């Protein structure tokens, strides 16, 4: 058996799999995140570890699995964060997670030294305050007492692998999400680290995602309730893992969308895809030698979650399903638009100063109109990303959906109509990341190859676009982008 963990923003989605990757059971253990004004987004790494321990024990107990049957563990995790460790491998402060946008000054310092276009060619990504290296610089520049204790840095899943094995390492997919990784040569970039004034010794060794990072230490085995010596596969970032969990392991497998807290569209490719306008970016894949061109918006599912919480009597228990169903019941937003930039924006705008906005709201608009506008706003933003891919030569003629939002018929129908391509739901949606991790572990343990992923998640529903609605949405998409352009100076002036 293989146990896979996916460290998301809201919790650890853990799953138990047969050694061929087939899903047996899953469990989610939630943990908090701290969001505050000024672009702050943080979590306590100890909460991640406690969730991994609790989820592992629950999976084994609930399924009646003998601990001796567990052949391996693997971790997928949220990307682009910064976990800062002392000499003993303990965090010196809360982790700065992907959504944090405080490091604008540090990003500008790097851009001045490297040049935006050169950095994009080198890294496969734009320089942006949401990436790890700028966050590390921010701590150095703003928290000198904390910085004096920092000896190593890593991202979320690497911290868990360290707790499991005692070895600090990362993989190529997560390394490629730091803004410090030379994608052309597969190493940490001396050029970037020199510009950042950071010691390369801060950064972990880089392994393939399928590499055996080590075995459970005696201490980790005891707390998890598993035998010491269970193999731990390195694993990778949640974006590339979701591709594998969606059955997307090669270019011919097409594109997928993950409708999680952040939402992204991606596909497998044999080489990085560089957009002349730098709207999209490319991660290294967990499939060795492969890449995943990606466009990620900061607040996809987070926008839907926010409006549901805001409109529900008890924000702790939002009735998202009912609100979404109401919004899908023949509602026309009547020229109401929502800009889904609650956490700033990565693709396609790369504007950390952007914020959410309802534009065109009138006295006649109801909560159903508001929710519908949120669904359409996320769809419009992702349509801009699809257009960027096509302008760079990618063919996208259907999109498979995973993530929590993929459970909603109403949402997938809106996406199909806005995008003008069929959108298909797969068997595994909530556990796509951990399924991808389980397949990666099976490959690393010599039990399977990546092609096995195609048979582990099947298409269960297809939403075909309505031609008339798509034509209307094509016009409305232009008004959506115009609304952002009109407000962009106001967003920029808000903090000055």
Task: Describe the structure using short key phrases.
seven-stranded mixed β-sheet, six-stranded mixed β-sheet, 16 helices, alpha+beta
User: In whole angstroms, how far apart are the ends?
Assistant: 55 Å
Structural class: alpha+beta
Note the beta-strand portion: 15-25%
Number of helical regions:
16
Strand order of the largest sheet: 18-19-17-16-22-23-24
Q: How many β-strand runs?
A: 24
Low-pLDDT sequence parts: none
Radius of gyration: 21 Å
Main pleated-sheet profile: 7 strands, mixed
The helicity comes to 25-40%
Q: Give the averaged pLDDT, no decimals.
A: 95
Q: Characterize the overall form.
A: globular
Brief write-up:
With 496 residues, this protein is an alpha+beta fold. The chain is 38% helix and 21% strand. Helix 14 links the parallel strand 22 and strand 23.
């Amino acid at each position: 058996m293989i146990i896979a963990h996916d460290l998301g923003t809201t919790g650890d989605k853990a799953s138990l799999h047969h050694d061929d990757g087939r899903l047996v059971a899953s469990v989610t253990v939630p943990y908090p995140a701290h969001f505050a004004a000024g672009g702050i987004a943080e979590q306590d790494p100890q909460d991640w570890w406690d969730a991994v321990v609790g989820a592992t024990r629950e999976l084994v107990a609930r399924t009646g699995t003998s601990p001796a049957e567990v052949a391996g563990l693997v971790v997928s995790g949220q990307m682009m964060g910064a976990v800062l460790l002392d000499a003993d491998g303990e965090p010196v402060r809360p982790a700065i997670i992907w959504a944090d946008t405080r490091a604008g000054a540090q990003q500008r310092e790097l851009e001045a030294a490297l040049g935006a276009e050169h950095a994009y060619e080198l890294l496969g990504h734009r320089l942006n305050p949401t990436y790890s290296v700028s966050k590390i610089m921010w701590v150095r520049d703003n928290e000198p007492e904390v910085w004096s204790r920092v000896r190593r840095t890593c991202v979320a899943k690497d911290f868990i692998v360290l707790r499991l094995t005692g070895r600090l390492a990362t993989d190529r997919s997560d390394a490629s999400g730091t803004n410090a990784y030379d994608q052309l040569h597969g190493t940490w970039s001396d050029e970037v680290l020199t510009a950042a004034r950071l010691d390369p010794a801060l950064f972990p060794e880089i392994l393939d995602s399928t590499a055996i990072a080590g075995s459970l230490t005696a201490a980790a085995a005891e707390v998890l309730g598993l035998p010491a010596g269970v193999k731990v596969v390195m694993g990778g970032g949640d974006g590339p893992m979701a591709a594998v969990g969606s059955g997307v392991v090669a270019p011919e497998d097409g594109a997928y969308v993950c409708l999680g807290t952040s939402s992204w569209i991606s596909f497998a490719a044999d080489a990085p895809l560089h957009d002349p306008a730098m709207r999209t970016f490319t991660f290294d894949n967990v499939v060795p030698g492969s890449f995943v061109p990606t466009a990620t918006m900061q607040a996809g599912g987070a926008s839907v979650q926010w409006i549901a919480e805001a409109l529900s009597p008890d924000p702790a228990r939002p009735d998202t399903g009912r609100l979404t169903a109401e919004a899908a019941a023949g509602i026309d937003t009547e020229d109401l638009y929502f800009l889904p930039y609650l956490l700033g924006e990565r693709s396609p705008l790369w504007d950390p100063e952007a914020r959410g906005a309802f534009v065109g709201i009138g006295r006649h608009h109801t909560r159903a109109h508001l929710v519908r506008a949120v669904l359409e706003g996320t769809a419009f933003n992702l349509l801009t990303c699809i257009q960027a891919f096509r302008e760079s030569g990618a063919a996208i003629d259907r999109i498979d959906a995973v993530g929590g939002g993929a459970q909603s018929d109403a949402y997938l129908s809106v996406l199909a109509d806005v995008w003008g391509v069929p959108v298909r739901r797969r068997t595994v949606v909530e556990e796509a990341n951990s399924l991808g991790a389980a397949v990666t572990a099976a490959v690393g343990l010599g039990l399977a190859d990546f092609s096995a992923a195609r048979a582990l998640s099947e298409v269960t529903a297809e939403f075909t676009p309505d031609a008339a609605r798509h034509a209307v949405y094509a016009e409305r998409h232009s008004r959506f982008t115009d609304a952002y352009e009109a407000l962009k100076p106001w967003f920029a002036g808000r903090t000055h």
